[in-house]
Amino acid sequence: MSVIEDMKGFMVTEEKAGPKINDELTSVVNDGLRKKAKQNKVDELTKKYAKPENVHSLTVPKINLGIWSQMSVPNRMNDVKLQKIQNLLGKAACPMLYLMDLFLSKSQTNDGLSREEVQSATQLCKDAYQMTQETYADITFRRRALIQAEIQPKYKALCKDDVPVTDFLFGNDIKDKVKEMDAEYTVGKKLGKTNFKIGKKSHDDKKTFKKPYVHVPKRHFDKPSNKKDF
Question: Are 129 and 89 spatial neighbours (Cβ–Cβ below 8 Å)?
Fold first, then answer.
């Protein structure tokens, strides 16, 4: 390669693709990376693996109590969610480590992998990938959740988990979604009995009730008695 060609290649911004993989596997992977799995399925998968006894660093670090007590509630909530993601990533590392351990032990002998060992290795790969996939998807949706605070109230529905993710975090048809939400907002304002506002109470909702005037005749006990107590 000439110097000029090398310089041209240095400025290429397109991501270089690797070799293709199995078509069926591709379909499953492309779909899975853009969706969140059901929690019960994730729980079943993570329960299959315990961390290796001699790998203590896979434990999610806890926040020191003195620091935790100084943190705001939103930051605590964000940290708890990050701990969940980190824990899942640690679980995904377990089958990877067991797989590497299998290969290392086999590399030290002249014995190849048996059919059963190949099947076991394939299962380890599958489980490791699925947990990694769920971590990847969780981070994607967590990004949307963090952005939600910056979005106007009437558009916050864009951050719901059922809104499809594409190469763009809020999907390809975000303009159409915004127009649809604007239309719903306008209809709501016209049809509602009160002012249609999201996130704020309408002034029309505040009704002032005046107590009805009731004449109460004066009675002898309305004034303090001058009688002496016995």
Answer: no
Helical spans, DSSP H, in 70-191: 73-107, 115-147, 174-191
CB within 8 A of 103, min separation 6: which ones? 121
Short-list 74, 87, 76, CA closest to 134: 87
Q: Would you say 141 and 38 are in contact if contact means Cβ atoms under 8 Å apart?
A: no
Cα 124 off chain centre by: 25
What does the alpha-carbon distance between residue 133 and residue 140 come to, in Å, rounded to a whole number? 11
- Residue 204 sits in which domain range? 173-213
Domain assignment present for 112:
yes
Split into its structural domains, the chain has a count of 2
- Residue 14 falls inside a structural domain: no
Neighbouring residues of 193: CB distance < 8 A, sequence distance ≥ 6: 204
Neighbours of 134 (CB within 10 A): 25
- Residue 136 neighbours by CB distance under 10 Å: 16
Q: What's the pLDDT tens digit per position in 42-52?
A: 999 999 999 99
**Are residues 88 and 50 located together in one domain of the fold?**
yes
- Taking residue 142's Cβ as centre, other Cβ atoms within 10 Å add up to 15
Nearest to 85, CA basis, from 30, 28, 146, 162? 146
Q: What pTM does this model have?
A: 0.71
